[in-house]
Each structure stands twice: as C-alpha cells, then as structure tokens.
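Record type: ASSEMBLY
Status: queued
Input:
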Amino acid sequence: MPDKTDFYNRLNIDTDASEDAIKKAYRLAVRKTHPDVNRNEGATQLFLNIQEAYKILSDPNKKGAYDSGREPHQAVPTVHTAFEYSQETLSSVDEPQIIYSLVDVVSTQAEKETTDLPLNISFVLDNSTSMAGARLEILKTAIKEIILELGEDDSISVISFNDRAKVLISSQSQPSSALLDSSINDLFAEGGTEIFQGLEAAFEEIRKKPLPDFVNHIILITDGHTYGDEENCITLAKSAAELDIGISGLGIGIEWNDEFIDNLCALTGGQCRFIEELNQVKDILAYSISSLKEAFSRRISLEITPAPGVKMLSAFRLLPEALPLPHQYEFSLGILKKDQPHRVLFEFMIDPIPEEIDQVVIASGEFILKRNPRDYTIPFTLDRPLVRESDDEVPPPTEIFRAISHLTFYRLQEKAQQDVASGNPGTAFQRLINLSSHLMAKGEESLAKIAMNEADYIKSHNNFSPTGKKQLKYGTIRLLLPDKT
Amino acid sequence: MITCKVCSNQEYDGVLFCGECGSQLVHAPDNNVNTFIFPSQVRGLEIDISNTIPKKLLENRTFILYYPEAEEMLNIPDQGEFTIGRFVDGQVITPDVDLNPYEGFDKGVSRLHATIRISPDKTKIHVIDLGSANGSSINGYEIPANSEVPLNHGDVLSLGKFNLRVILPKELK
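Status: finished
Output:
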C-alpha cells in the first residue's frame, strides 16, 4: 500500500510533477472525494487530507521545505503522462462534434538498476498437416535457437498442438540443448488445427509459476483456421488478461484467420504478426521476445470513462506497437516498456455542449501499472476549453494529424472488407482505388500498388485475394507506427 | 457538419478525414499530404512493356494503345482524331482502327465504338463513346456516351470487354 501520509501519494502524483499537473491531480481528487459527491465513510477525512497536501504542494516555498524534509525512499516510480488533442478548443455548435486525443504514458525510470523482469513464456506450435515440410522444420530450428538465448531466470515451456495438445517441454528454466533436440526434433506434422487445445495447455504451464514475479506471455504460431473452438479461445484470452498473461499470435502464410487471432491478441494486449516469408520466422520470434524483455511492468492497463454526453467511438493503440483495441472501457495494453511511451489514440463524439461551460470534460481515466511489490495508479482527465465564436482555424498538431491520417488508411481497407462482406464489391473497388491514391500521395508506393492490384482482383473475383487482404491490413497497421519499423 | 468535397459524404465537425473516401477535410500542418495522385498514376507504375515493344517504336509518339492480351500495340493513325470499331462488309462509315483481327466481335466491340481525340498541342487525350451497344469504361468505371472523357497514362480503357492500356511513352520508367 502507498504511504497515505505522503503528500504526493495523497494526490497520486510524481515527486517531480509540474505545477499544472499538481493542480490537475488536485481537481480530480477533489471531484472524487468531495463530501457532496462521495458519501462513503472516511471520504471527508480523505478530502481534508487532500486539501492539506495541496496547500503545501501548490506553494513553491512550502513545497521546497516539504521536499527537503521528506524521506527520499518514498519516491514513487517516475511515470509520466502526456496528452495531445486534434483541436485546442471545442466549439459550441448545436450538433455533435468529434475530437481525437492521443494519450501517452512513459516510465522514465531513473533507477536503471531496476532488475529486468524475468519472462514466463510458453511457445505454442501448430503441427497440423499444413505445417508439413519447410514451415515446421524452420520453426523447430528457430524455436530451439531462441530458447537457448533466454536467461537463467526466464521460464520456458513448449507445446505442440493439432487436434490435441502435447507438452514438449514443461515449464522450466534453461532447458539443455540435448533436451530441446530430443523433445522438438521428432515433431512432425499431422492432424487438424485446434488452437484452444494448444492455448489451454500453455495456460496450464504458465500458471505453474507465481505470475506476479514474471512477464507472462503465450506465443502462438499457427498457419491455419481453427474450427468450432473460437468461443473457448476468446474466453481463455479473457481469463488470461485478468491474470496478466499476454497472448501474441504469429500467422504464417495466408490461410490463418487474422480476424480471430487479432481479437485474441487485442484482448490481452499482445501483438499479432503476419509472417509472409518463412525466413522471417526467427527474426519475428526474436523481436517478440526482445520486446517482452524491455518490460518495466508486467502489465499496464487503461480504464477510461467518457463524461456524460460523450461517446467513445474507437480506441487504437499506436505504441509500442499498433493494434486496434476492442470496443470496451478497460484495455489491457500489454507490458509497459522502459523509456518507451505507450500511446493510445481515442476518438470521441461529444454531444452539443451547454454554453455556460468553460472547460469541457471529455473523459477521465487511469493507467494501472502492475509491478511487484505494488501496483500504481495514474489518473488523468481529458478536457478542453470551450470557445463560443472562433473564425481562425488552427491546424491540428502534426503528430496527431499524422496518426489520424494513417488510421484513415486502416479504416478504408477495413471498410472495403465490410463492403465485400455485405455484397458490395463495387464500393470496395472504389474504396481501394481511393486508398491507393492516398497511399501513393504519401509515398507508400508498394502498398499503393497492392491496393490497386487488390481493387482489380475484387473487380473480377468479387472478393479479396487471401494474400492481398492480409498485406493491406498489416501494411496499413504498420504505417501507424511513428517510425514505421 | 462538414461535407467532403470529393464524395459529398457528411461528417461531424472535428473529423479530419472523410470516412468514406479518405480525403482530407481540414487545412493540414503538413503540405505533402495535400497532393492528389490519380489512380492511373499508380497503375502506370507497374507498366513494363520493354520486353514486348522495342523502344524505337515508341519514339516520337504521344501515346499508344497497348493490347496486353496479345502483347501488341494497336496500329493507330497519326492524326488528331480517329475512331475505333469493327469493320463489317457493306458498312457505310468504317472505323479508322479495326479490332476484328483481335476478336473484337466476341469481346462486344461495336462497329463504331469510340473516338479518340488528341488536343492540338498533344498534351491531352480524350475518349468519346459513340453510343456503343456494350458501352465503354475507364479503370472499371462506365463512362457516359457521347461525352469527352480524359485518358491518363496507365488507364485501362475497356470497349465492351476489350481492354486496352493507355500508355504515354514519356511516363515510362
């Protein structure tokens, strides 16, 4: 439990919070604890405690005196939040309006000495018939190499699955090269693809370790569709998210079910990746592992509550990796990396605003960081001033503009898919042509060509080509990353 | 509400890009994004006819009509305006370019299907569908009969089901 006598903890802020941040945190705390609103027992005392803390911290002189007499070991981790909006102000119009908001959270961990969190990883390998040949052989080699590179604190298990699951390596640290050879080499391809079997076995293996001490992750590698057990998988992903276990999916080739795997990953804050070429298997696996290694907290989640009269239309995680978030108010964002921001783009629709309001609250929320020995909560409020009359159009800030423009690409391909699904290939054709020109204008020549070819394919086949559909989807997602790596 | 200038779709205030066609709706901080690229320019990127048509044949030509199925270019007269169609015995007005040798009949080409018009300064090319039975389209879009429609490098011009590629040799890589 945080030390509630500490003034910074009372306001739930960092010791280096700016004057502005202190004021904001104070307002938020007051709103939660004011006796008029909060009739819970003890709320009044809490309210008074907050007043006391703010009185000191808002006065630079008193704050300095307080800081110098304060025990340094009470310092909370330095986690910062930053916000950017598509427009500086909201306008008082008598119809709904849209505003986008970028929400950043970053752990600027001064304490570099914080030890790396050990990994608790389960690799789930598809060995159904379709994996036969090069796919399985390359995967086997890659997995063995990756495992040998892991540290002595990391815990590893390997599961294979087709119609049923088999634990090849049960949860342990640094399995020997000989054990890896004997348990993985003989794996051959047969049978169907029942992803739930594999996930369930991995879930069991992962839970053999004390979860709070690890970064827990299931890495699923598949090339096929699972049939009939999707619901079970989703239920499992939800329980995994509650236990801070992430799931990432690596899809090989073009047959796998991207919607399903995306969904599975999004629920747990994991990442879905498309392996087009077999020679990418090892690199993509290594990348997945190394990004888990950078974890500062084993999980970060975000809760958001739109204010009355505000609807959240969509949420998109942009950093550390781009991922459309499921439409809900609590998201698992996966691990929080050291010194790397997590960034979420929100789209809100705001009902007409009463004229007498000066500062419009759009939403309030909090980041929840899970890290031993304690969890941290970082609250925030999204708000914008209201202007009544304004002629000068201020262009949106570059960063958010860029993000939204790239989000538009993703949306266009998504809509084209919906067009095809609802029997309007003509509309899909038109949309992909548009997408192609926009991509071209942005200098994305190869993706523009793919969109154009796909448009032509739809014209003659009334449907997407399996490759083109995935290339467009993961191609437009990739564009969302600020550095496009 | 904001109305998209490109597709007339209506969006709420505050939206930055049209949800239907992706066009930008606001003044942008980044100037690069405002450039509009014609779809045919993207198509034009992929054109490579160096294996089938010798470079020499392309010299001094404003444009060619390429028939991908036969990997040939149509023999078109060097004049400001000419017609394309199918030659039939006893026909009073005959087309300048006859598509009979390319199975024009099976592909639904009319006797007088379309006119191609080149501007005097040779910078613009237009097609006019002459009210053909099966119509004409550009890049999959049907074009109205008897009106001038511009042609760009890379465009796929379909006369009935007869697909031709419009190529401006100067645009080739």
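Annotation: The CA atoms of residues 314 and 347 of chain A lie 5 Å apart.
Annotation: Chain A has a mean pLDDT of 85.
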